[in-house]
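An example makes the point: we print one protein in full, the chain in one-letter code, the fold tokenised, without further comment:
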Amino acid sequence: MSAKRLTNSIKIFLFYKNVHLAEDGIVIHQGMSPNGDGVNDFLQIDNIGQYPNNKLSIMNRNGQLVYEAKGYDNSSKTFDGHSNKNGQMQLPRTYFYQLEYTVKGITGHKTGYIVLKY
């Protein structure tokens, strides 16, 4: 393979990576109030159904993992304030998330915070 052809391949790969991951449509709602009123009772992630190969991790302020799910889908796998590590309802405060998802073999990452209030 010539050097010119290798350079073109790299440019195409980088272009592909930037376009598809930058415009993934995933929006993670930061506010939750799991009080049973039907509004914001679980962590809503818009368009996550388009990326079934995903992993969501939620940590408390001490970095302890309180929730983890592969294939988070806003229906059968949701974070409603309960830890799936110990079953306890988490205290109202700020938590941190990491979402990994795959698009055509490329892994995307999103990190941020959510606020849990009752």
In short: The chain is about 15% helix and 35% strand.
